[in-house]
């Protein structure tokens, strides 16, 4: 049913809940799991200079230890958990608008299912911008399993 499952991750507890579901599904279906960390350039553009932002958008994290470490930690967590269960995992880091990068990754890698947490922005900011999950639902044509981040 599913051969390639994408789990976007930011290393949060919400993402960890989605990772568990993605790995359970992958194990059941014999699928590989793709862990995607997206450096949100919109949120970083206010705190970084143009040169640093340009480096991030080009994937040059070598001089930005904190960004690289967060990305590697988040995708590495998925890969380690997958390996423990005998599941093939692919790690990828990109930069841009998270929902757009998720949709692009889905298309470019023949992803069959996206598994992600439900928790998004809150208050006025969420009403104006919409959450990454909501935007991903509108941006992709594959099934999206939304894991309730509020608990079980």
Protein model, in words:
β1, α1 and β2 form a beta-alpha-beta unit. The protein has a five-stranded parallel beta sheet, sandwiched between helices. It is built from seven helices and five strands; from the N terminus they run βαβαααβαβααβ. α5 packs parallel to α7. It is of the alpha/beta class and 152 residues long.
Fold blueprint:
Layout: E1 4-8, H1 13-29, E2 32-40, H2 41-44, H3 50-57, H4 65-84, E3 89-96, H5 98-108, E4 113-117, H6 123-129, H7 132-139, E5 144-147
Parallel strand pairs: 1-2, 1-4, 2-3, 4-5
DSSP strand content: 15-25%
Average pLDDT metric: 83
Largest beta sheet: what is the strand line-up? 3-2-1-4-5
Number of contiguous helices = 7
What string, H for helix and E for strand, traces the elements in order?
A: EHEHHHEHEHHE
Fraction of residues in H or I helices = 40-55%
Query: Low-confidence spans: pLDDT under 50, at least 5 residues?
Result: 120-130
- Could you give the count of β-strands? 5
Q: What structural class should be given to the helix and strand makeup?
A: alpha/beta
Largest β-sheet summary: 5 strands, parallel
Task: Describe the global form.
Answer: globular
User: End-to-end span in angstroms?
Assistant: 25 Å
**Radius of gyration, whole Å:** 15 Å
């Amino acid at each position: 049913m599913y051969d390639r499952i994408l789990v976007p991750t930011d290393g949060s507890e919400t993402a960890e809940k989605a990772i568990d579901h993605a790995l359970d599904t992958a194990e059941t279906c014999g699928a590989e799991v793709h862990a995607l960390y997206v450096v949100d350039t919109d949120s970083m553009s206010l705190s970084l200079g143009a040169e640093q932002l340009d480096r991030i958008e080009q994937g040059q994290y070598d001089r930005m230890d904190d960004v690289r470490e967060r990305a590697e930690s988040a995708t590495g967590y998925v890969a380690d958990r997958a390996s423990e269960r005998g599941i093939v995992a692919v790690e990828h880091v990109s930069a841009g608008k998270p929902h757009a990068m998720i949709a692009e990754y889905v298309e470019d890698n023949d992803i069959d299912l996206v598994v992600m947490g439900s928790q998004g922005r809150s208050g006025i900011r969420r009403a104006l911008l919409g959450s990454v999950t909501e935007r991903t639902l509108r941006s992709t044509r594959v099934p999206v399993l939304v894991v309730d981040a509020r608990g079980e």
